[in-house]
Amino acid sequence: MRYDDSTGATTGDAYPGGPDIPDEGAASVDHVIDIALAQFAEQGFQDTKLDHIARDSGMSKRMIHYHFGDKKGLYRRCLVEAFSLIHPSHEALTVDTGVPVEGVTQLVDAVYLKMVENPSAIRILALESLHDVLHVTELSTLANHSEVLLHLDKLLMIGQDAGAFRPGISAEDLFLMIWSLAFFRVSNRDIMVNLFDIDTTDEENTEGMRRMTVDAVLAFLTSNVAGSGRSSYLSGSRAFDETQSAADIYGAEDIGDGA
């Protein structure tokens, strides 16, 4: 069986030289992924049993092995799905405004609210970060958030060109802030309840943390902090050279309509 690194999908015969096993259909496979993702997110990789996934999904262990190879193959496919679930749609990322502050607010909302809608995706990704079931080099092929970064880059450069945003901030810096708060809401919920009797996942606090995330990002962008001469707070950033303007990269016509 061969695995597609970008999707986690499998192709080819699971048993070379053996008979073909009929495909049970995409819906059945998707259902197994949904069940497995929920169980991996709740119990972690080690404590999740294929027997339980087979029982709850209605797909035999033999067919699970056929579609995913083994438990780690299924887990890897669940991570791919988790990244997909928290990635905003193209429509949500296409900001129709030429005002950088409004555009950043809309993008922060789009990323944060997508994470709010998919807490199991947050949990499985947080557990993977802690337990490192898969190697980092493998994980690098699982997700592609370049569209989010591209839109953030564009708004950053428009705002920096206009003097609305300070220099020295990259899209990755903003992404880190958004993810940190969104992940904390789910992964540290029990600790916050224990320490402060605050449920970060209830409706009121979910909205409060959304506003906190937007305000934190905007304050970070507009504060009067002396520039460091760097293009980002993070090393290894693929941020654009600060000497380039938004018009240089995207074209004046794109900047004008805010597309």
UniProtKB/TrEMBL annotation:
Pfam families: TetR_C_29, TetR_N. Residues 49-68 bind DNA. InterPro entries: Homeodomain-like_sf (IPR009057), HTH-type_TetR-like_transc_reg (IPR050109), HTH_TetR (IPR001647), NicS_C (IPR041474), Tet_transcr_reg_TetR-rel_C_sf (IPR036271). Residues 1-23 are annotated as: Disordered. The keyword Calcium does not apply. Keywords: DNA-binding. The keyword DNA-binding applies. Residues 26-86 form the HTH tetR-type domain. This is TetR/AcrR family transcriptional regulator. It comes from Corynebacterium suedekumii.
